[in-house]
Amino acid sequence: MNKITVNEMNHVRPAAVAGLFYPGQPEILRSRVTRLLDEQHQEQHRRLIPSALVVPHAGYDYSGGVAASGYSLLASDPDRARRWRRILLLGPNHRVPLRGIAAPKADLFATPLGSMAVDQTGLAELQQRFDVQVREDVHALEHCLEVQLPFLHELLPSAKLLPLVVGQERPEPVADLIEWAWDQKDILVVISTDLSHYHSYDEACRIDADTEHAILALRSDIVPEQACGAHALNGLLLAAHRRCLSAARLALCNSGDTAAPRDQVVGYGSYVIF
């Protein structure tokens, strides 16, 4: 297994879906992110200090508002948000088969708004403690983490990333890794996942309601047909159950509510663990 060394500097992971999933021009993107955040009002939950956020990763036309409902908890109190100096970002593999958990080789993740640094020292510690492999191929074209970066760059520009793609993996190892992150006190956990895929509108609403019930109950038995990021999500829910935390819904809809027909829709949910 290749090990990360902190001396490998300036290896940049270029933005792969800028101009596709979100605007590629910096000023247009910044305006879009700002508008999405301004449109979200989480008065009921704005005083919560999140231990983790669950947010979707489709194009901003489809799920940007739902994602912003989660990130608005950081925007509501910038001074409080600055406690997060690192972000453990977990999401599923869409393009390259993967068993286990994969870290990038990159030192920087590029976005149209600027680059975000990877916490190589933290990744090295994760490799020592957990079964984390370095897979540049897994990260190269993966969009699920990338689409979160414009929000994170806007809200936490100095935070460093711990970006991991979670393939087929049991909840327990993922939960162990997340609990390690929480023990560091300066790490916000972000799980990137969409919900059901390509069902009729009514069927998707039923499936996503069942999935939401599992999330709010902190059950770690969600399957990929319910959420494409199920393996990372289950780890989060198990860790939250172990720590006696709670979950709350911030937003729930599907692509039939936002920017697509209702014959084959994708579900999107945003949740906070606190």
TrEMBL record:
InterPro entries in UniProt: MEMO1_fam (IPR002737)
Identify the Pfam families for this entry. Answer: Memo
Top-level taxon in the UniProt lineage: Bacteria
Task: Return the similarity comment.
Answer: Belongs to the MEMO1 family.
Please report the name of this protein according to its UniProt entry: MEMO1 family protein
Q: Which organism is it from?
A: Marinobacterium lutimaris
